[in-house]
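Annotated sample (chain length 154).
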Amino acid sequence: MPAGSPSRDVMLMQRALALAERAAQSGEVPVGAVVVMADEVIGEGWNQPVSAHDPTAHAEIAALRAAAAARANYRLESASLYVTLEPCAMCIGAAVNARIARVVFGAWDPKAGACGSLFDLTREPRATHRVDVFGGVCAEASKELLRRFFAARR
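Output written by the structure step:
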């Protein structure tokens, strides 16, 4: 399957959804992320800010850190980031700084999304790097996971 194909995007989003389930099982908001370069998963992560006592321990940050360590380089210029929820400002900022080529996400986040919902930092003309963004991949599965998580907490 070629990189960026719809079926490949769905397959990788399903992997991110499995990581989001892992977060939910730990009592964390269910968000998962995967970084792919040259058809190889080089980093993955899930939300852990509560358990790690770290406000930066979002799924995307964990996946980007793992990918940068795997490549021994913080620049991930040809990589794609798959995440189950639209990245916040911190996470899309990290993706821009890492020179990620593509961000593919599941559910839109009208409360904190920074790729078109609340803000659109990916289209900021003064940014040092442009990221191609594709939202809505496996959106229903991502939304359902979040809905179930928050319903159980109420």
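Annotation: The radius of gyration is 14 Å.
Annotation: Helices lie at 6-25, 49-52, 59-71, 89-97, 139-153.
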